[in-house]
Amino acid sequence: MAQKPSIPKGMRDFDPQTMVKRNYIFDTIKSVFKRFGYLPIETPAMENLTTLLGKYGEEGDKLLFKVLNSGDFLAGVDTSTDNLFAQKMATKISEKGLRYDLTVPFARFVVQYRNDIVFPFKRYQMQPVWRADRPQKGRYREFYQCDVDVVGSDSLLNEAELVQIVDDVFKQLKINVIVKINNRKILSGIAEYIGATERLTDITVAIDKLDKIGIEAVNNELIEKGLSVESIDLLQPVLFMTGNSREKIEKLKLLIGQTETGLKGIDEITILFNYLDFFNLNLGFELDLTLARGLNYYTGAIFEVKSKDASMGSICGGGRYDDLTGIFGMPGVSGVGISFGADRIFDVMTELSLFPTGTSETTLALFVNFGKFEELYCLPFVQQLRDDGLNTEIYPDHEKMKKQIKYADQKKIPYVIIAGENEIEHNQFTIKRMSTGEQFTVKNTEIVHILKELAAN
Question: 204: exposed, middle or buried (C-beta count within 10 Å: 0-12, 13-18, 19+)?
Fold first, then answer.
């Protein structure tokens, strides 16, 4: 019995119709990245585990896909029962892993090629990443990230520019979004204020789950991590602080303004908000003190973008990291970046029916093929249309017209070009508009001009 074809859970195939829509998202994002002066790079799917481990926190490390060493991966490994511990074995039988995100490989790239790149270094990267997560709606084991980062500059103008990029991308994709903004230094100040300075990572990891598990579960997790009841009680009014962003900043000054780190975070968020108020942005933005983003490498501003109209989690996020290159031997190089979640954006656009009906990838016109004589009449015009940048096909076989029309209908080709005996005799073509069934005849010398007009409307 033949094996039933399948793919691993959390992975997906994409048919042509889906890829056309995905590429519409990628092309839109890429065009904005380029307009702001960012250049593309790519890094390999696999990195050394030493590059990846320890950069994403304890929970992130658990989600790394590890790749078995080639050849006899158990060679030289003690396989007695006492030593068969998964974590202990992993480092011995696996030296490589699939990348978990694009930021850590980017930091490795910057350090490795530090003498060949110009700082501040502005790059974008659009590639798949892998996480051994539990598949669910909006969460896949393989998914694309579209990252844009700048390293080698401390200026908060970079953060402001990233919000402009977010604004531009989602304006073009017609998604109404809100940008939630916080600062890791403010979170550090809060940790100091509640008397739990050493527990910053535990606090951020826990409150990062607030939307998913609720405040009660977050508080229980903090108790399990060793925070006192007094500290947790002090944290509650901070997490649920009311008022607009400017009012929250003033309240924060009273709570954490006496802490050096907290005050620096307040200053940074104030400068950033002043920039954003200056720009004419379509999107909304707000200070959200519950925004923590569990990744350990963030040190300053943190961002999360959500759709206002769709039931989806974060569709874009990022932040400032002051010393990610330091772990690779190049300290003191600050960077900031954001990542667009292409798969979640796709789901939002599908839910809200935001995809355009035609794109630059779909075929505009199909020439019907009635036979060798008609085929030879059509071919020069097929070539002309393609030379003029119009996506054009000719049906490859001499089939019944009904079958060829069905082909055009299934591929959603908007125009069918017909050249029978009568059209050829009068140097003409008949154009059939598939959406209405309307037909009209044109001179063959006008076919390129007329289809260009139709494509533009």
Answer: buried
| Domain assignment of residue 377, given as a range | 365-456
pLDDT at 152: 94
- 3-state secondary structure (DSSP) of residue 205: helix
Hunting for tokens 């007695």 — which residue is that?
80
Q: Round to whole Å and give the CA distance between 95 and 50.
A: 8
CB neighbourhood size of 106 (10 A): 23
Looking at residue 415, the DSSP 8-state letter turns out to be E
Residue 431 lies in a domain: yes
Confidence of residue 381 (pLDDT cuts 50, 70, 90): very high
Q: Which residue has the tokens 């350990």?
A: 296
For residues 144 and 274, the answer to whether their CB atoms sit within 8 Å is: no
Q: Are 371 and 399 in contact (CB under 8 A)?
A: no
Identify whether 411 is part of a domain.
yes
Query: If 0-12 CB within 10 Å is exposed, 13-18 middle and 19+ buried, where does residue 313 land?
Result: middle
> Is 53 inside a domain boundary?
no
Instruction: Give the span between the Cα atoms of 207 and 396, in whole angstroms.
Output: 60
Q: Is the CB of residue 165 less than 8 Å from the CB of residue 148? A: yes
**pLDDT per residue over 41-80, tens digit each?**
999 999 999 899 888 878 888 899 988 887 665 666 655 5
Left (φ > 0), alpha (ψ -120 to 50) or beta: where does 37 sit?
left
Q: Give Rg (Cα) of the chain.
A: 28
Say which CATH number the domain at 380 has. Answer: 3.40.50.800
Q: Are 38 and 158 within 8 A, CB to CB?
A: no
User: The pTM is what?
Assistant: 0.85
- Rounded Cα gap, residues 147 and 423, in angstroms: 52
Q: How many structural domains are present in the chain?
A: 1
Closest listed residue to residue 187, CA positions, set 218, 166, 208: 208
